[in-house]
Design a protein that fits this description.
There is one protein chain. The chain is α+β, with helices and mostly antiparallel strands. It has 2 domains: 5-55, no CATH class; 63-245, no CATH class. Helix content is 40%, strand content 13%. The chain has 11 helices and 10 strands. Strands 1-3-2 form a 3-stranded antiparallel β-sheet. It has a 3-stranded mixed β-sheet with strand order 4-5-6. The protein has a two-stranded antiparallel ribbon with strand order 7-8. α5 packs antiparallel against α7 (153-163) and α7 (153-163) packs across α10 (198-210). The mean pLDDT is 89.
Length: 248
């Protein structure tokens, strides 16, 4: 009786974090084998979310707890670009339902149980060089979980510029960039130093000049540093044409 899965689970219940995905590895550390966990799911003590992932019956997945769970398996996972700006108070259009923008170091597929609860897009685009400190421009929210990293406004802005022409419109991007009132110029300069995407730096330079932003000379300097051809032209998925001239 004392070694039955149900008995072990009842002892473990007070320790189980609510709203958090429960992986077989975590449950094994707390005394339940994969076979016992599967039996508990069959008996209704756990709800199976996906392969090796469970939730307490009747629980609702917590967004940040789920992000922290994913971050254990996806190197460099962080909330990025437009979502990071919104979480840090920079918004323009408020969608009826938020689609999370997540970035990481390597290609990965978000599990269905996660995207069903939290619509999300993941990408592993690298816009910075390998010499950049991996935590530069990444930090938890002031009142958030320490294991959920969110791009600072400076890094999120550059990530947003990278998404223009893919899933991000130029007009909204301009409004968001203009809404970033007091970027930390030292952090922005460090990020620009490691930036290796001509498209991003030229778009930053163009918007900063059009909007007369305080960091326009910084963007110009790094646009000149990266060089490239006289024009960078792209047509996005929506048909929007992006024509970025080399600053003269």
């Amino acid at each position: 009786m004392g070694t039955s899965p149900n008995f072990l689970f009842r002892k473990l219940l007070p320790e189980l974090p609510r709203g958090t995905p429960l992986g077989t590895a975590w449950l094994l550390e707390h005394g339940l084998t994969a076979k016992q966990t599967a039996r508990l799911a069959e008996d209704g003590w756990l709800t199976r979310l996906g392969h090796g992932v469970y939730l307490l019956p009747g629980d609702k997945l917590d967004r940040d707890a789920s992000l922290a769970w994913l971050a254990k398996d996806v190197p460099g996972l962080h909330v990025a670009a437009k979502t990071a700006l919104a979480w840090r108070g920079v918004r323009h259009n408020l969608p009826a339902r938020e689609t999370l923008t997540l970035w990481g170091n390597h290609p990965a597929k978000l599990p269905i149980w996660f995207t069903a609860a939290f619509p999300a897009h993941y990408q592993s685009t690298h816009i910075f060089d390998d010499a950049m400190p991996p935590d530069l421009g990444l930090a938890p929210l002031p009142a958030g979980r320490s294991d959920v990293l969110v791009s600072t406004t400076e890094r999120a802005m550059l990530e947003l510029l990278n998404d223009v022409g893919k899933r991000q419109g130029l007009e909204e991007t301009g409004h968001l960039v203009e809404s970033i009132r007091s970027p930390r110029l030292q952090i922005l300069e460090e990020l620009f130093t490691h930036l290796n995407r001509i498209k991003v730096v030229r778009l930053a330079c163009q918007l900063a000049d059009e909007l007369d932003l305080p960091w326009k000379s910084l963007a110009l300097h790094h646009s000149e540093r990266l060089g490239g051809g006289r024009r960078w032209v792209s047509v996005g998925k929506s048909g929007e044409r992006l024509n970025l001239k080399r600053p003269t």
